[in-house]
Specification:
It is built from six helices and no strands. Helix 2 crosses helix 4 and helix 3 packs antiparallel against helix 4. It is elongated, with a radius of gyration of 32 Å.
Length: about 180
């Protein structure tokens, strides 16, 4: 028993120590990436501007606009990053890609398509769900009519309430004092 408690305490101590190192590890990783791949970082910063804007203006807790725009934006940047990585992979190549209007149209157009998806998909899903619900209502009404025709109109009548506190069926009118 005492050994198990000691092991659990050691695990808790090691877990709490890991959480304090996470920010430091992220800073080190980011620094290495910036110094090792600066041309890719420049291209990503310029290409991901629509995603950064979406992050700033998106007030929802899930950041759905940022996710939608960001995913499409990354898809639009990928051909340019691939061209950079398979080409010279230099600052001049990165600047050449950034100043090429066709590459920018692909990057920002994909982000624009992400905005279109973010705006249109919720209303399309809502319309689809309304249509499904309406079809279900129509199917249930059809079944109801079939039951009424088979069993008679008494099937559709609601039973009277047996609750003594229910005053709806009471014929007496309260007297005013």
């Amino acid at each position: 028993m005492a050994e198990n408690k000691e092991i659990e305490e050691n695990v808790k101590i090691s877990k709490s120590g890991d959480s304090s190192l996470k920010p430091l590890l992220w800073v080190v990783l980011l620094s290495i990436t910036v110094f090792k791949f600066p041309e890719s970082i420049i291209l990503l910063l310029v290409g991901m501007l629509p995603t950064m804007v979406a992050f700033v203006i998106d007030r929802s807790s899930g950041k759905y606009a940022t996710l939608c725009v960001g995913a499409m934006n990354i898809a639009g940047i990928f051909p340019s990053i691939f061209k950079l990585w398979t080409g010279q992979n230099s600052f001049s190549q990165s600047i050449q890609i950034i100043t090429n209007i066709f590459d920018l149209v692909i990057m920002y157009g994909a982000a624009g398509f992400g905005w279109i998806l973010y705006i249109i998909i919720p209303s399309a899903v809502s319309a689809l769900l309304n249509r499904i619900a309406q079809r279900r209502i129509n199917r249930l009404r059809k079944q109801q009519h079939e039951l009424i025709s088979e069993w008679g109109k008494n099937v559709a009548v609601r039973p009277e309430s047996e609750d003594p506190t229910d005053d709806r069926d009471s014929k007496e009118t309260p007297e005013l004092a």
